[in-house]
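Need a sequence for this fold. Nothing fancy.
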């Protein structure tokens, strides 16, 4: 019975998250988010002390993480694991980022409620 309740709570949490995020990006929109992320990461890696590049990198990373988490274009088995990895990358740069922290914490809670191991990395 506890497992059923945990599963129901996890599903409610996921539905609420999707409602807040909208329907999520399609495949082309997700590819655009990934490209923006890769460009921002490369620019920051080349010049980490240059003003504004860290914020652009964090913002692009969080947007890509949210897109990955909410897209219907990716399989459920991989998208949450990938989104969690992407959010962790953003949190390494900016541990105070509210969206990355909130969504990361939510996914970790869901994994735990389902009795599944939280993905590493």
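Here you go.
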């Amino acid at each position: 019975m506890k497992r059923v309740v945990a599963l129901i709570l996890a599903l409610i949490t996921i539905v609420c998250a999707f409602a807040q995020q909208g329907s999520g990006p399609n495949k082309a929109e997700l590819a655009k988010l990934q490209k923006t992320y890769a460009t921002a990461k490369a620019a920051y890696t080349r010049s980490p002390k240059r003003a504004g590049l860290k914020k652009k990198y964090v913002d692009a990373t969080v947007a890509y993480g949210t897109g990955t988490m909410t897209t219907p274009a990716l399989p459920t088995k991989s998208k949450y694991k990938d989104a969690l990895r992407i959010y962790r990358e953003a949190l390494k740069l900016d541990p105070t980022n509210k969206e990355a922290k909130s969504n990361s914490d939510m996914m970790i809670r869901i994994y735990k409620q389902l009795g599944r191991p939280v993905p590493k990395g």
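For context: The CA atoms of residues 66 and 83 lie 7 Å apart.
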